[in-house]
Amino acid sequence: MGDLRLRRTLFQVAGVLVLLLSTILLARAAGPDCWVPARWQGGPLEMLRRAGSKQVLADPARAGILRDWYNPRTLDLLENTPVNCLLVTWSTGAKADVESEQHKLLAAYTRAAHQRRIAVVGLVYPGADPARAAAPVVEAGLDGLVIKGDSAGGPQIARELRRLLREKNSSAVVIALGVRDWLLSDADWPVLGTSGAVMPRVRVFSESDSVTATPTTEPWIDSNTWLVRSLRAWGGERPVWLGHRLGNPSEADYARAIADAAVAGGRWVLAPDDALLASLWRGQPEALATWRRIGACLNFYEQHAEWRGFTPAGSLGIIQDHAGKHAAMADENLNLIARRRIPYRVIERADLTAAALQGLQAVLAVSFAPPTEQERKLLAAFAEGGGLLVAGPSWNSGTLAEGDYAVKKLGAGRIAVYKQDPPDPEALSKDILDLLGNENLPVRLFNVAGMLAHVTAGPGGRRLLVQLVNYATEPSGLITVRAAGEYHRARLFSTDAPPADLKINKSGERIEVSVTKVAVYAALLLEK
Amino acid sequence: MNENWHTITRRQLLAVSGLSLASLGRGDPAAPAPRAPVAPVSIGKCANYDEDLVSLLAKQFDQIGGVRRLVGGKTVAIKLNLTGGGRIGTYTAGQTHWVHPKLVGAACHLMGRAGAKRIRLLEGAGRGDSLEDKMLNAGWDVAALRSAAPIVEFESTNHLGSGKRYARLKAAKPYIYPAFDLNHSYQDTDVYVSMSKLKHHEECGITLTIKNSFGITPNSIYGNDAGVDEPNENARRGREAVLHAGKRQPPKSAPQEVDFTSERHEGYRVPRICVDLTAARPVDLAIIDGIESSVQGEGPWVNGFKYANPQVLILGRNAVCTDAVATAVMGYDPRAKRGEPPFHRITPPQTPGAPEWAENPMLLAEAVGIGSADLSRIDVRGVPIKDALYDFESRRRG
Questions:
Q1: What residue of A is the nearest CA neighbor of B83?
Q2: Domain of residue A455, residue span
Q3: With B52 labelled, which of A229, B35, B60, B136 sits at a CA distance of 20 to 30 A?
């Protein structure tokens, strides 16, 4: 009898929890925070836009598919995928009647999308008239507008659109998908979106099959993980979208683009290529299977959304100052230090406090304007307490560098001061590794020439997450992950297989785990 | 570059296969030194690393006199050829420019079984890494290697390592350096094994077990960032300035060159330094991994570097004899003079007009009595050269 009552109570509690969870999920699905975006361009306006930009489709059948894309049946493709925000062709500066026809088409499509809890946002291209783009938003029921382009005027257009939408009592949001500078000059973006990202991959520079390199050179990896990290450090809780397209993508390229953004907590705006869309329209089984797997990839990261809240783990802190005079070089430092697989934490200059430096072995402070007296004291105290401070010539330590930098003792720690302002990022990234020492890295990876890792820690520091992305076209194997700490469980997650426990080998105060194969992505979750 | 390529001739091939011993080198300025020692060399065929390497290696050890007599109760140091990093396509480094881990494991296993007291695997590792880290970075199963014999140790010899001081080893008849300061492991051993790859070398033409000894020099003393007075234990750079080009000397604490006015061209210096090193640290067992390999250079950083599959394993007790046989297996004349194939630069020089020739290290070694490069004097066992022949030159060009 008691058992029955207990069981009933448990059922009731579970029911309440499920209800609560659903409410939270539904509530979240309403806002850009959990929009999972996809480019979904089509209609007559898209045809015209492509003709104008000379992106003429070679296959007339494909052109027809593109024109008819806003048939509600295309929404069926989104079943079993987490995609819940479609970026549709909305305004291009074309003739009013063409845009009007497109808006009518999209009004019906948006209603159908909303029935499926899918948000629709309209793409506003360079040349579009803000007034004409904003006017039909309410009528069509759009959830927002996305400004495309690379001119300097993006933020101005955004402000104008916001004003126009407010006048119409619209709650539609305005999102940027242009150059990164737009984000920095406007604090009101609900999403930190940029098209200034690259197709993630290993780049081969040689024309032949061979690679031009030196005995110690590793392949050049294009990745956007550093960019996501930089934006998240600056933008706080706001979601980060990367809006780049892929050139002639394979299925693995899609998986890689999704993973490259997701490991650092961002989202790649899924951009299915025309060939894939046409095959999906025709219901070709291979394309549908590919689409299902792409959807499964996206699902994986949404199912592990908790990982986005993990904090970057690393012994190096990099101070980021967007007002600094060498912003491009600062970006390159983030990029190249990540490529050396040195785990780091980005610290916004505004957030520079003693607490922000807690747990770090080294701080890189070369990319910001001369520090204030308070910042100087803080950083000097960090070094005196046993840390390593890497600074630019403005630090003026009184030590002349014979080489690129000079190292001198400061209390229990060291300060390395560069002669050049700013230091060469390539040399700096190598120097950082030398200064820190391989053996002091919290996580080291072996046999990962074409891979990068993003290392984060769960709340309380009892879980360490090592996410691996393989940028090479071939799977990587026989990888060793070495981590400092007493971990007793290692679980491997991937997008295409159930989680598996891996054997942990202890080696002094470190542990080693072997990962047999990584096609595109794998995550190793270490638990204390 | 010398365009008048000529590789080993049919007549020479007949000579080395035992059908005619008459003509090789006769009347040549590089005529064989009659007193240079000789030792048998074994050639084995093996399609790839999935074959039974333990059985093959055991058979080949037997063909050159057995491994028990050589290593029983002794400390064995094996200098591996793990030059640089990188890879091409889906090939592992061991399939192209490094010795393969399975071959290393098989050698350790057989030596352990033959009673070797301790086996030390040696090679330089870069940027503060241990040798195990370097191996892990190439996907090697270090734990398996460690358990391949009762005691298997690893040491990066780019620095002082676990020793208290550097060992000074002298060359009796030096070309460039009268002695070298080396990691202790090259002295604290009873048996020294040079395990190299069968492959080309961009500047020197080929790289075999004599050339493999170039890598025993520590960066702390022979690296570009070596100290001026003393070794620099934080050195991380290569050996171009000191050894290749002779632009600077090693630290004052180390032996200096015998003649500061000698030729600085690397094709002159590197082969001579390798011979000096081979004289200072004589090779007791030479093993050449040509099962899978590469053509065009010593690593994937050389333009045009390509995978090759010679399917041979060559070993012998004398490094010069073993290298000579290996050179013939590659389709070249082991008595070729400098500038003749394969002894010249493979890719165009970085400075137009710079010399492209390289010395033949086997003839240099022969001249100082290390071993004979005269195929007619070398007892080749197992597979005859003609049946093991793999034309590196045409594959490089093709």
A1: A215
A2: 443-527
A3: B136
